[in-house]
Design brief:
With about 475 residues, this protein is of the alpha/beta class. The protein has a domain of about 220 residues: Rossmann fold (3-Layer(aba) Sandwich). Helices cover about 40% and strands about 15% of the residues. The strands form 3 sheets. The chain has a 6-stranded mixed beta sheet with strand order 4-5-13-10-11-12, sandwiched between helices. A 4-stranded parallel beta sheet has the order 8-7-6-9, sandwiched between helices. Strand 7, helix 5 and strand 8 form a beta-alpha-beta unit. The longest helix is centred in the middle third of the chain and has 17 residues. Bound molecules: pyridoxal-5'-phosphate and zinc ion (ZN). The site of pyridoxal-5'-phosphate has 18 residues, from helix 8 and helix 13.
C-alpha cells in the first residue's frame, strides 16, 4: 500500500481542523487561511521500535535513498511513494564538538556542538526541505517550480532542477539583497531569475500571485512539505549524539521554517515514544529583522492552543506598514520582517519551552569570525545562533554546564563580501559594507599584511607577525 494513503494535510486552527489530501497544493487553509501541517495516521504505518533502528541503513549507502540524510528517515516523513523520491545526496552533514568556541560563549562546564548544514550539496540546510518539496512537486507532476528567496532557497531549488531535469526553476529575488555566492549558484545552474525592485517580503508576495496565475509549484517554506524534510536535521543531531537529547537547540530565525520543523520533529518523536524528553529551543533574530522577538518576547504573543493573539499581531504588521519599516541586517538570509511560518513557530516555542533573542550585526559578525577561527566557518545568519547562545548564557537562561547544539545553516563561501569586509585593512571597504550597518569594530579580524615583493622584507614580516 502506498504511504500517501496515510498522509494528509491539516489546518492548524483548533476552530477549523479541515483536512486535505497530500495530492492538493495549498499555502494556507482554503477555509480559514491558517497554516497547514502534513500529518500521518501513525498507527497504520510501519515505524522503528527505537531510533537506533535507523542505524541498520548505514550499511546500505549504495542505495541513494539510504545515502540521503533526509530519506534515510523516510518512515518519519512518509508522505511519498518511494518511486517519487528525489535526492541529490543531501543531508551528509556534521555535528562537530566545538571546544575552542566554548570560552567565547561562556559554556564553562557544558558542551557546545555545531551542526554544519552548510555541508549540503548547495551549501545550506535548505536542501533538506527542498528534497521533500521537490518530491511532492514530482508526485503532482509539476513542470515548473518557483520561490522567492534571500538566496539559499533559490540556490537549492536551482540545483534540484539542474541535477534532476524534472522541472524548470523560476526564482524571485529582491534587488541588491542577495549575496554573490548564492546568486552565482542560481545563474550557473540555469534558473530563470527574476530580480524585482524590492526586498524579500515584496518578492514573496509577488511569487505567490505568479504561481497562482501560471499554475507553478511554489517551494517556499510556506510549503508544508519543506518542513517535513527539515525535521531530519534534528534526527541527525540526535543520531550524532547517539540518540540522546541535548539541553538546547539554538537556531537563527528568518521565515521560521527551520524552528517550526524542529518543533514538529520533537512533538512527533515524543508522541511516538521515540524520545522521552524534548530539548529547549532558542530562536535568534537579527535586530534589524526582529518581528518574532518583538511579538513573542515584548508583546507576549503565545501559541495558546492555536488561539494566538491575532489582533496584537495584525496591529504590529499594520504599524510596520504605516511606518514603511523594512528589514535590514548583514545576515541577509534572515532579513525578513514577515515570517511566513509565524504560527507554526509559536507552536514550536510552546512545545520546546522556547525563548527568542535578538542580536545585532556587530555581535553576529564577531561570532562568525570566532566560528571561522574554530574550523569550517559559516555565513552571517548562521552565526546568529552563536551570538544568541553567548547572550543566553550571560543571562543565565542557558546554564553554563548545559549541552547546546547551534545550527550553522549556511556555508562560509555563500557571502564572501561580508567576510572580506570584516578582515579588510581598507577602511573604505569596511565602512561601505559594515560601517553603514552600525558595525564599528572587527575585534577578531585576521588582517592580510601588505609587503613589497622583496624577499628580505617578506621574511622580516613573517618573523614579525608569525
Ligand atoms: C533560510 C536561512 C535561514 C532562515 O531559516 P528559516 O527557516 O527561514 O527561519 C537562516 N540561515 C540561512 C543560511 C538560511 O539560508
Ligand atoms: Zn482552516
Amino acid at each position: 500500500m502506498s504511504p500517501t494513503n496515510h498522509a494528509f494535510q491539516r489546518c492548524l486552527s483548533p476552530d477549523c481542523r479541515a483536512t486535505y489530501g497530500v495530492d492538493e497544493v495549498h499555502f494556507g487553509c482554503p477555509k480559514c487561511g491558517e497554516s497547514l501541517d502534513v500529518e500521518y495516521d501513525w498507527d497504520r504505518l510501519p515505524l522503528p521500535g527505537k531510533l537506533s533502528d535507523f542505524e541498520a541503513y548505514w550499511t546500505q549507502r549504495h542505495d541513494p535513498i539510504r545515502f540521503s540524510g533526509v530519506w534515510r528517515f523516510q518512515s518519519l516523513l512518509p508522505f511519498a511513494a518511494t518511486e517519487h523520491i528525489v535526492t541529490v545526496g543531501e543531508g551528509q552533514t556534521l555535528l562537530q564538538k566545538a571546544d575552542s568556541l566554548r570560552p567565547f560563549v561562556g559554556l564553562d562546564g557544558g558542551e557546545l556542538y555545531l551542526q554544519y548544514e552548510g555541508m549540503n550539496p548547495s551549501g545550506s540546510f535548505k536542501d533538506n526541505g527542498m528534497a521533500a518539496a521537490f518530491t511532492h512537486a514530482r508526485m503532482l507532476g509539476a513542470k515548473r517550480a518557483a520561490c522567492a528567496s534571500t538566496g539559499n532557497t533559490s540556490a537549492s531549488l536551482s540545483m534540484y532542477c539542474a541535477v534532476t531535469k524534472l522541472m524548470r526553476a523560476l526564482i524571485f529575488i529582491g534587488t541588491g539583497k542577495i549575496s554573490y555566492g548564492k546568486l552565482a549558484q542560481a545563474l550557473d545552474y540555469g534558473a530563470l531569475t527574476v530580480q524585482i525592485s524590492g526586498d524579500f517580503d515584496d518578492a514573496m508576495a509577488r511569487v505567490r500571485e505568479v504561481c497562482q496565475q501560471l499554475d507553478i509549484y511554489l517551494v517556499n517554506s510556506i510549503n508544508p512539505f519543506r518542513l517535513e524534510g527539515q525535521k531530519t536535521i534534528m534526527y541527525r543531531v540526535l543520531e550524532s549524539l547517539r540518540w540522546t537529547v541535548p539541553d538546547w537547540i539554538v537556531v537563527p530565525g528568518g521565515n521560521l521554517g527551520n524552528s517550526s520543523a524542529f518543533g514538529k520533529a520533537f512533538m512527533e518523536l515524543k508522541h511516538l515514544g521515540l524520545i522521552d524528553r524534548i530539548p529547549r529551543l532558542a530562536i535568534i533574530n537579527a535586530r534589524g529583522a526582529n518581528t518574532l522577538y518583538q511579538l513573542f518576547e515584548q508583546e507576549g504573543v503565545r501559541w495558546n492552543e492555536g488561539r494566538w493573539q491575532r489582533p496584537t499581531v495584525e496591529g504590529y504588521f499594520e504599524e510596520m506598514d504605516a511606518q514603511q519599516r523594512k528589514a535590514s541586517t548583514i545576515a541577509s538570509a534572515i532579513e525578513i520582517n514577515r515570517p511566513v511560518n509565524f504560527t507554526k513557530c509559536l507552536r514550536a516555542l510552546e512545545v520546546c519551552d522556547g525563548v527568542v533573542r535578538e542580536v545585532n550585526d556587530q555581535e553576529i559578525l564577531d561570532a562568525k569570525a570566532k566560528v571561522g577561527a574554530g574550523g569550517m566557518g559559516c555565513e552571517p545568519a548562521s552565526a546568529a545562533s552563536i551570538a544568541g547562545t553567548k547572550k543566553l548564557v550571560e543571562e543565565g537562561i542557558i546554564g553554563s554546564d548545559e549541552q547546546v547544539v547551534c545550527i550553522l545553516t549556511g556555508h562560509l563561501l555563500k557571502d564572501p563580501t561580508s567576510t572580506i569586509a570584516y578582515h579588510t585593512t581598507d577602511q573604505d571597504e569596511f565602512n561601505e559594507v559594515l560601517g553603514k550597518r552600525g558595525v564599528t569594530r572587527a575585534s577578531f579580524a585576521n588582517r592580510a599584511i601588505a609587503v613589497p615583493n622583496e624577499l628580505d622584507q617578506i621574511i622580516r614580516a613573517i618573523q614579525l607577525y608569525g
